[in-house]
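In this section we walk through a basic example: taking a raw amino acid sequence and producing a predicted 3D structure, encoded as C-alpha cells. The instruction is simple. Fold the sequence below.
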Amino acid sequence: MTNPHSINPCVVIPVYNHQHAIGAMVNAIIAQDLPCILVDDGSSTACAQVLDQLAEKTPQKITLLRHAKNFGKGAAVLTGFRQAAELGYSHGLQIDADGQHCAADIPHFLELATAEPNAVIVGYPQYDDSVPKLRLYARYLTHVWVWINTLSFDIKDSMCGFRVYPLASFIALAQQIKLGAHMDFDSDVLVRLYWQGLKIVNVPTHVGYPTDGVSHFRVVKDNVLISMMHAKLFFGMLWRSPQLIARKFKGKIPSQHWAQINEVTFVTGMRFLFFVFRYCGRWPFRIVLYPVLTGYIIAKSTARAASNNYLQHLNAVDPTLNIKPGLRGVMRHFAAFAESILDKMLLWSGLFNFANTQYFGQGNVLNNLAQGRGGLFICTHLGNLELCRVLVKQAKGLKVTVLVHTKHAQAFNKLLAQIDPTSQLNLLQVTEMSPATAVQLMEKVAQGEYIAIAGDRIPVAPNPRVAFAPFLGQNAPFPVGPYVLANLLQCPVYLMFSLRTRDGAELYFEPFREVIQLARKNRDQALAELVREYAARLEYHCRRAPLQWFNFYDFWQKNI
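The resulting C-alpha cell sequence is shown next.
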C-alpha cells in the first residue's frame, strides 16, 4: 500500500511488561500498513518472547529495539524516535502499549500532522466510565501547572501518551536538554516544544482503562519526579514570560465583550478545585489556587488592566482607602477574588459558617415570601453572589433563579446539583430576553419565586441599551435591562449586596421599589434616574469593601 500522507510517519511504542495488550495494538497498526518501532524497556522474559514473535512475524514492518534494563517510558520513546530519525522518517507517532488508546484514530492524527507538519498533534482524552475518578481528578494537578508554565490553555492534556511529533524538532530539543526519562517525560517535552514556538493541536480521542490493564506508575518516585519537573519548568517560564506573553497576545488584542471572554474548562476546573478542597483541605486548595491565579494575572492582560483601571478610579476618589494601583494592588485584588472562590467551595460543601453571616433587610423578603409573592433582586459582582444560598438554605420555600449571560449555566447547574441536591438556587442562561423567557420569568414570580439579575454588566446584544451614571468619579454605562424586566414583572425590587468580612459575611437586601412602572413619556429619563440610584449604592458598597468588586473588564469603556 502506498503512503497516503505527504509526511513519512513511523509509530513508536514503548513497552514494559505489556505482553497481554501489545499484540492487539501492533496488529491494529500493521493493518494500517504503518511501520512500527517497538522499544522493549527491560521487560520480563514472557513479554520479551511476545515481542520477538511479533517482530519475526512481520519483519518488514516491525523494528524491535531493546534496553538491557528498565530506563523508563521517556527513555524508551527517545530511543525509538532517534532510531526513526536515523531511518529517515519525518514524524513519530507515539502510542502506549497498554491498550488504553484507540488505534482507529491514528489516520486522523496523521491527517492533521500532514496538514500542519510543524505542529505537535496531541491526544485530548475522552474518558469512558472505566476511568478511576481519583486518577482523573489527580491529572488536573499537572494540567494546572502546565497551564501556568506555558501561560496559556493551549495544551488541554499534557499526559496523554498518544501524539505525533515532527522528529526534527523533537531530536533537536533532546540534543539541547535532558528530558524526563520516566512518567515526567510527556508533560516535560510538550511544554518545552511549546516554548520553542511549536503549535499544539489538541485532538479528542477515546481513552479506556482495561480491567486487566497494567500500570507502571510509581506513586512516590514518579510523583517526586513530576513535582521536580514542574518546579524546573516554572522557573524556566519566569524568564521566558515576556516572550510567552508576547506570543499569546501577538498583534492587536481584540476588544471583547465581557461575555465573549472564553471561560476555559470552567466547570471542569471548578469540579477539580472542589475535589481538592473537599478531600485535602484549605491549604492544599490554596496551594493549587494561588499559582493558577498568578499565572492568570500574568497571562490575562485584559483582566489585569481592568483591575488596575478600577483601582485607579478608587484611589482618585478616595485616597484614604490606601489601595494604590499597580502590580501590588492588582495582586491584592485578585487575592480577594481567590478567597471568594474558596467561599464558594465552603458554600457548596455545606461548610460555610452561617452563624457568622449578618443579614440586613431580609425581613421584607421573608414577609413577601410568606404572602406568596415573588420579587426581583438586582445584584452586583461585589462580593459573592452565592451568599444568597445562605438565605435560600434558611428560608423554607425560597427559590432563586439567577440570570446569567455565559454559556456554562447548564453544566454549572449540574455541578451544583451533584454537590448539593437540595439546592434551590438555579442558573438560567439568557443571551437575550425573548418573549418565551419573559413569560417563563413572569410565571416564576407569580409562583412566589425570586429572580436575580446583575445590574453592573452590559448585556450581550449588539446594540445594548444603557444609561450613563457617575461611578467612582467618571460616567460609566450601566444596563437598563433590570429595570425594564422589573416593569414587566410588576413585583417588589431589591438591591442585593454581599460583603466578605473578617469573621464571615454580610448580606444586604435594600428595598428599591415596591413596583417599577415605566410610562412611555419620559421613559429614558426614568431609566436614567433608576440607574443613578443603583450606581450610587454600588459605589457606597465598593468603598466599604474596595477589593471585592470582581468586574474584570473595561467598565468605563467609551464604545458600547
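Looking at the output, two observations stand out. The chain has three domains: 9-235, 242-347, 356-548. Residues 251-267 have pLDDT under 50 and may be disordered. In the next section we compare this with other chains.
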